[in-house]
Design goal:
This protein has 986 residues and is α/β, with parallel strands linked by helices. It contains 37 helices and 26 strands. The strands form 7 sheets. It has a 6-stranded mixed sheet, sandwiched between helices. A 6-stranded parallel sheet has the order 15-14-16-17-13-20, sandwiched between helices.
C-alpha cells in the first residue's frame, strides 16, 4: 500500500511544478504569522510596528468563518498607532493571479488546548485558504468529511483563533479518489441523523467526465490562477443564511460560456441544466459578473410565472441581500430599466410584464419611454427558455432590442420530436425548438449526468393496471385510484415522512377527486377507529374574470385556462368550498379574491414537511395535494417524494412533473416515487430516450431504480453476509449475540455488515409494487422483530464505537477510524414524537386496540430508531413510571412527560449545584439565560462562581469540573439546537 507520506511528497512536488513556492520552514503558528506579516506589508506598501501587527491579527482573526471570508474578499480599514487609517486588503483582490502562492506541510498548530497537525495547506499571500487531507484507505466521502468536521470542532484547533479562520476549501484524497467542499460555520458544517450532510464535490471536465486522480485534480483545480478564480469568482457567500457555497463544475462552465459569449458578442445561446441542478445560482452568478461589464447596459432575468418571479427574486436575494427588488407592475419595471443606478443593472421580471412594456398597442405607451434603450446592449437571461417565450413576447423583444443577447436555461429543451405535444386533452399546441430561438447549446448537464453525480435521485415507477377500467373519467376509475392511494401512501411516503402530489387531467377531475377523498376517508374511519386520515388539499387557478394576476398565472397553465372557460361559475364555487375547508382545517382565512395568498400558503405547507412532527405538528401539513397544472413545474421541495399520476403526460411535461420528486436529502429518500394510473409506459420510455440520448435499456438503467426482485436478492446477500460474519466469530446470527463480539474491530465489522442490511431494507420499505410472495420472502429473511432488535443493538454499538473513535483519534484501530455510522438509515419515519405519544396513551388504556403494545414492545420499538436517541432514556423511564388502566389521553401524556423531564432536570441541577457548592437558584438562572439566548457566555460563568471566592487557578479547575457536569444537561435541554460558544467546553 502506498504510504500517506509518499502521497504527500508527490503532491508537494506537483504543486512546485505549478510554480507554488514550497515553504518547508513554515511548520508552526509563529512562522505562519511571520510569513503573513511579510506578505501583508509588501502588498499594502506599509511597515507595521509589532504592536500594530498584533492589533491587526486581533482584528482580522474571527471564529466566524463567514465574516472572515467576507474580510478576505474586501478592502478593509485599520487604525494605526498614530490614529491614521490604513486601507488594506489581505490579498490582491483585483487580480488574484498576482498573489504569492505557497505550499506548506505538516503544520503544527500549537494552542492552549491542542497540538493539531495538518497534512498540506495552500497559502495565498500568506493566508491559509485550502487544506488538503490525504488518506491511504478507500474511505467514504461522508467519513472523510466527518473527520474534518470533528477536527475542526476540537477545542483550540486553530480555525477559530488563528489565521486558519480564513480557510475556504477542504480537499480529501487517497490519490485515486479526490473530493472537495467549502468551509462553513458549524450550523452548515455538521452531520446528524436527519439530513445535515455537507455537499461534497468531484471535479469534472466540461463534458461532465470525472477527474478523480489527485495528480489530474491538482493540474486542473490547483493551478494558481484557477484556484484564485475559484475562490474570488465561483464561491458564493449567502448573506441571509451566513453560508458559503462553492459552485459545482458544470455551473462554472455554464457561467463562463455565457460571459465569453457576451464578451465576444457571439449571439444567443442556451444552457441545458436539468431540473434540480441549481440553475438559479448559476444564473445569479452570470448576472452578477455582468454587472461589471461596462459594455452591457442592462441584464434582465426573465421568468414566465408570477410565483416563479417571487421565488426567483427570493433566491437571488438569498445569495446577496437586496440584489434585486420586486417590480410589482410594468411601470416600475420601465423605471428600473431606464435607471442608471448600479443597483438597477440586474432586474428580475416576468415575461408577461416585459411583454406589456413592449406592447405597441398598450395605451400606457411604455415602449416610447424605452426608446433610449433601443440600440443599447441588453442581456436577457430566461429562467425556463420555452413556453411563453416562444410567442409574441419573444418576437417583440427581438424586434425592439436589435443588439440584445438572449440566453436561456432549461432542464428540458424543446426538440423537433417534442415541439408539438398534447398539453390539453383533445387539442395540440406547436412550439419552435429551443435551438430555433436560442441558436446554440452552450453547456449541457442532463438529468443523466445529475443522477450519475447523485445530485438528483432515480425514479421508481409503479404502473397500476386497474382492470376493466376503460373510461378514465368514470367514478369507478377514480374510486380505484383513491383506494390504491390510501393503501399505498404510507409505504410510498415512508410513513408520511414525505408528502405527495396527485396530478389530475382537468379541474373537474380535481374537484371530484377532492370530494371523493373526503367521502372515502370518512368511510375508512367508520370501519377502523385507529385510522388517521390523510391531510388532503387541492389547488387550481380560478376563472380569471379580468384579474391580471390570475391571467399571468394561467399563461403557463393551459389546461386550467381552457377548463375555466367552461362553466366558470361552477368551478369558482367549487374552489370557494375547497378554500373554506382549508381555512377550517388549518385555521386560516384565505379568500378566492386573494387567490395568490392561498396558493403561497399551500406551497409553504408542502415545504413544511421538512419539520418533524415534534417541531411542527402533522395537523399543520399536507399529505396529498391535488393539482391540475400547478406545481408540476418550477416547484422544489426536498420532502416531496411521491407523484400520483392520473393524467396524460409527454416528453418535457412528463420529465418536469416527475422531477418534482427527485431532490436529494439522504438515504431515507432513495428515489422519487411515481405511481401511474394510466397507460403511460410508452410515453415514459420516449421521454427517457429523448432526454438521456441513450437507447431505452441504457436509459432505464440510468433513470430507474432496480426492480424489486433484484433489490430483494441484494437484501438476501446482505443478510447472508451478516450471518457469515457472526458465524466466523463463533456466534449465532442473533441480536443478543452481538454483545458477545470481542473487541472494537469485531464490533466495527458488525456495524459495516448490518448497515448494508438496513440500506436495502430502507429501499424495499418504499417499494409500492411488492406482491404478497415478495413481502413474505423479505419477512422470512429477517423477521421484523429480529430486525428491530438488531437495529436497537446497532445503535447502542454505534454510540459506543463513536465514543472510541473520538477518544482514540489517529490511535484508534483503522477499522474504527473509518467507520461511517449513517444513523440516517435508522431514522424511522414512523417512530416520531407524535407516534410514540399516541402509543403511550393507548398503552395506558383498558380498552383493546390493534395498536396497543406491551411495555416491553414499546421500549423495543423506541430503541430501534435513531430519531429520538437523545431522549430515548427519558422516554423509557417515563414509560416505566406509568401504570396500565389509568386511561390517559395524548394531552395528558404530553403534559405528564414534560413534567417528568422538568422534575428530572431540576433534580440534576440540584445535584450539580450541591456538588459544586453553589445554589440551585443561581445555577437555574444561569441555565435559563443560556437557553433563552442560545449563547454560552464565559463571563457569566465567572459570575456564577464568584461567591466561592476562588483564586484563578482553583477557579479554572472548578469551571472545568462544573462544565463536565453541565454540558450534557445543556445539550439535552437545548433539544438539538446549537448553543453558540459551548463547543469550547465539549
Amino acid at each position: 500500500m502506498v504510504k500517506e507520506a509518499d502521497i504527500e511528497y508527490g503532491l508537494v512536488g506537483k504543486l512546485q511544478d505549478l510554480k507554488y513556492t514550497y515553504r518547508q520552514d513554515i511548520r508552526d503558528r509563529k512562522a505562519l504569522e511571520l510569513n503573513f506579516r511579510q506578505k501583508f506589508e509588501a502588498l499594502n506598501r506599509v511597515k507595521l510596528t509589532d504592536a500594530e501587527f498584533d492589533k491587526l491579527l486581533n482584528e482580522i482573526i474571527n471564529p466566524d468563518v463567514f465574516k472572515a471570508s467576507n474580510h478576505l474578499r474586501k478592502r478593509n480599514t485599520f487604525i494605526r498607532e498614530d490614529d491614521t487609517p490604513l486601507h488594506y486588503t489581505l490579498v490582491n483582490i483585483k487580480d488574484w493571479c498576482k498573489n504569492d502562492f505557497e505550499v506548506i506541510n505538516q503544520l503544527r498548530m500549537n494552542t492552549q488546548n491542542s497540538n493539531h497537525r495538518y497534512d498540506v495547506i495552500l497559502l495565498i499571500n500568506g493566508v491559509p485558504v485550502v487544506q488538503i487531507e490525504l488518506k491511504t484507505l478507500e474511505i467514504s466521502p461522508n467519513r472523510a468529511m466527518q473527520q474534518i468536521v470533528d477536527y475542526k470542532n476540537d477545542i483550540g484547533n486553530g480555525y477559530a483563533n488563528s489565521l486558519m479562520c480564513f480557510m475556504q476549501l477542504f480537499i480529501v484524497s487517497n490519490k485515486t479518489r479526490t473530493f472537495y467542499f467549502s468551509n462553513n460555520n458549524n450550523k452548515h458544517f455538521a452531520f446528524n441523523a436527519d439530513e445535515q450532510f455537507l455537499p461534497v464535490y468531484t471535479l469534472a471536465k466540461e463534458d461532465n467526465s470525472k477527474i478523480n486522480h489527485l495528480d489530474d485534480f491538482t493540474d486542473k483545480f490547483l493551478a494558481k490562477c484557477t484556484l484564485g478564480e475559484m475562490i474570488s469568482r465561483y464561491m458564493v457567500l449567502v448573506e441571509t443564511e451566513q453560508k458559503i457555497l462553492v459552485m459545482r463544475p458544470y455551473q462554472i462552465y455554464a457561467v463562463k460560456a455565457i460571459v465569453d459569449c457576451i464578451e465576444q458578442d457571439r449571439g444567443n445561446g442556451y444552457i441545458w441544466h436539468t431540473t434540480g441542478s441549481g440553475k438559479t445560482l448559476t444564473s445569479f452568478k452570470a448576472s452578477t459578473l455582468l454587472k461589471d461589464n461596462d459594455a452591457i447596459e442592462k441584464c434582465l432575468f426573465v421568468v414566465d410565472r408570477k410565483d416563479l418571479d417571487r421565488q426567483t427574486r427570493e433566491e437571488f436575494n438569498k445569495f446577496q441581500e437586496g440584489s434585486v427588488e420586486e417590480n410589482t407592475n410594468t411601470k416600475t419595471l420601465v423605471r428600473r430599466m431606464l435607471s442608471t443606478d448600479y443597483a438597477d443593472k440586474v432586474i428580475v421580471t416576468t415575461i408577461q410584464k416585459l411583454g406589456l412594456a413592449l406592447d405597441t398597442k398598450n395605451d400606457k405607451n411604455y415602449i416610447e419611454h424605452l426608446e433610449p434603450l433601443k440600440d443599447k446592449r441588453v442581456v436577457f437571461i430566461f429562467d425556463e427558455c420555452h413556453r411563453s417565450q416562444f410567442g409574441e413576447n419573444h418576437k417583440a423583444i427581438v424586434e425592439f432590442f436589435p443588439k440584445a443577447q438572449l440566453f436561456g436555461f432549461t432542464g428540458t429543451p424543446i426538440f423537433e420530436e417534442n415541439a408539438t405535444y398534447k398539453t390539453i386533452e383533445g387539442e395540440t399546441a406547436s412550439y419552435k425548438t429551443t435551438e430555433d430561438v436560442f441558436q446554440k447549446e452552450l453547456h449541457a448537464y442532463t438529468i443523466t449526468n445529475a443522477i450519475e453525480d447523485k445530485n438528483v435521485l432515480r425514479f421508481h415507477i409503479d404502473y397500476f393496471n386497474i382492470k376493466g377500467q376503460q373510461d378514465l373519467k368514470s367514478l369507478s376509475h377514480k374510486m380505484a385510484v383513491i383506494d390504491a392511494i390510501l393503501k399505498k401512501h404510507d409505504k410510498a411516503t415512508h410513513y408520511k415522512r414525505f408528502n405527495a402530489i396527485l396530478a389530475t387531467s382537468s379541474i373537474s377531475d380535481a374537484i371530484e377527486y377532492y370530494h371523493l377523498f373526503k367521502q372515502n376517508q370518512r368511510e375508512y374511519a367508520e370501519i377502523n377507529p385507529d385510522y388517521r386520515p390523510l391531510q388532503i388539499a387541492c389547488v387550481f387557478s380560478p376563472p380569471a374574470e379580468g384579474n391580471t394576476d390570475v391571467k399571468q398565472l394561467q399563461e403557463d397553465l393551459p389546461q386550467e385556462k381552457a377548463d375555466n372557460e367552461i362553466e366558470p361559475n361552477i368551478k369558482k364555487a367549487a374552489l370557494k368550498t375547497i378554500i373554506a375547508d382549508y381555512n377550517t382545517q388549518y385555521n386560516t382565512n384565505h379568500r378566492i379574491a386573494d387567490f395568490d395568498l392561498y396558493y403561497q400558503d399551500v406551497q409553504q405547507r408542502i415545504k413544511d414537511q421538512k419539520y418533524t412532527n415534534k417541531d411542527y405538528a402533522h395537523k399543520n401539513k399536507i399529505d396529498v395535494l391535488i393539482v391540475v397544472d400547478m406545481l408540476l413545474t418550477g416547484f422544489d421541495s426536498k420532502y416531496l417524494n411521491t407523484l400520483y399520476v392520473d393524467k396524460n403526460l409527454k416528453y418535457h411535461g412528463l420529465i418536469q412533473a416527475y422531477s418534482r420528486t427527485n431532490r436529494v436529502i439522504n438515504d431515507t429518500k432513495p428515489y422519487g416515487n411515481i405511481l401511474v394510473f394510466r397507460d403511460q409506459e410508452e410515453e415514459v420510455n420516449k421521454a427517457m430516450i429523448r432526454f438521456s440520448g441513450a437507447k431505452i435499456e441504457k436509459a432505464k438503467e440510468i433513470w430507474l431504480v432496480e426492480a424489486a426482485p433484484k433489490v430483494i436478492e441484494k437484501y438476501k446477500e446482505a443478510v447472508e453476509q451478516l450471518t457469515k460474519f457472526m458465524e466466523a466469530k463463533g456466534l449465532a446470527c442473533s441480536p443478543s449475540e452481538v454483545n458477545n463480539l470481542k473487541g472494537d474491530e469485531a464490533r466495527a465489522g458488525f456495524i459495516n455488515a448490518f448497515k448494508e442490511v438496513q440500506r436495502y431494507k430502507t429501499q424495499l420499505d418504499q417499494y409500492t409494487d411488492l406482491n404478497d410472495t415478495q413481502t413474505e420472502t423479505i419477512e422470512v429473511l429477517l423477521p421484523n422483530e429480529d430486525l428491530r432488535s438488531f437495529k436497537s443493538v446497532y445503535l447502542d454499538t454505534a454510540k459506543s464505537l463513536q465514543a472510541a473513535q473520538a477518544k482514540g483519534g489517529d490511535q484508534a484501530p483503522e477499522d474504527v477510524q473509518q467507520l461511517d455510522f449513517e444513523y440516517v438509515l435508522f431514522s424511522s419515519a414512523i417512530i416520531d414524537y407524535d407516534y410514540i405519544i399516541g402509543l403511550i396513551a393507548t398503552f395506558t388504556q383498558d380498552k383493546p386496540s390493534k395498536n396497543k403494545m406491551t411495555r416491553e414492545e414499546l421500549i423495543n420499538l423506541l430503541s430501534s430508531s435513531a430519531n429520538l436517541m437523545e431522549e430515548r432514556e427519558d422516554i423509557i423511564a417515563y414509560i416505566n413510571s406509568l401504570k396500565v388502566g389509568f386511561g390517559l389521553d395524548e394531552k395528558d401524556i404530553r403534559k405528564g412527560y414534560q413534567k417528568f423531564k422538568d422534575d428530572k432536570a431540576a433534580k440534576e441541577i440540584q445535584t450539580i449545584a450541591d456538588k459544586q457548592g453553589i445554589t440551585a437558584l443561581s445555577l437555574n438562572a444561569f441555565i435559563d439565560e443560556i437557553l433563552n439566548r442560545m449563547i454560552f457566555d464565559g463571563e457569566k460563568l465567572t459570575d456564577l462562581l464568584e461567591p466561592l471566592d476562588l483564586g484563578w487557578k482553583d477557579r479554572s479547575i472548578k469551571e472545568k469540573d462544573l462544565m463536565e457536569d453541565l454540558v450534557p444537561l445543556l445539550n439535552k435541554l437545548a433539544q438539538g439546537r446549537e448553543i453558540a460558544g459551548l463547543n469550547a467546553y465539549e
